Each structure stands twice: as structure tokens, then as C-alpha cells.
Amino acid sequence: MHLGRVIGTVVSTSKDPSLTGSKLLIVARLTPQLEPTGFTEIAVDTVGAGWGETVIVAKGSGARMAGTLGKSVSDAAIVGIVDTVETH
Question: pTM score, two decimals?
Fold first, then answer.
């Protein structure tokens, strides 16, 4: 898992049936200090995240276990909205 910031949305009328009804968001990966790494990805939103929010992104087979994704083709899922981050 890693931290990310929602920077956009993706609308796709033609997609794999396992993604039907899913909201797709563009997420910029963040460091633990909340600085952008320069890497972006598309993630399925399972928690109702919005633009500009800091989120937790699960990857790989763990992403498919989130929410109702079941046997989805998704490789990244937003599984949490972050309230605060503390590093030492």
C-alpha cells in the first residue's frame, strides 16, 4: 500500500464488465512526507474519495479484495481516505 493524492477522474464508457459501476480516479503517488513522487496511476475508488484528498492505495491482488471488486481486473484500489499522517 502507499499514499496518494486524487488529481483527476477517468470516464470510460467501454471497459471490462468487472469495472461497470466503478469510479476510476487518477492518483499521484506520495512520499511519507506527502510530496509527489512523479508517478501516477488509475485506481478504483471503493470509499468515495474526491479530488485533492489524500488516500491509501492498495495494489495487486489485495486491491481486488477491496469493497465489491471481487474478481475485478483492477490492479489498484483506493481503500482509505487519510485524515492525518505523522512521521518521525
Answer: 0.89
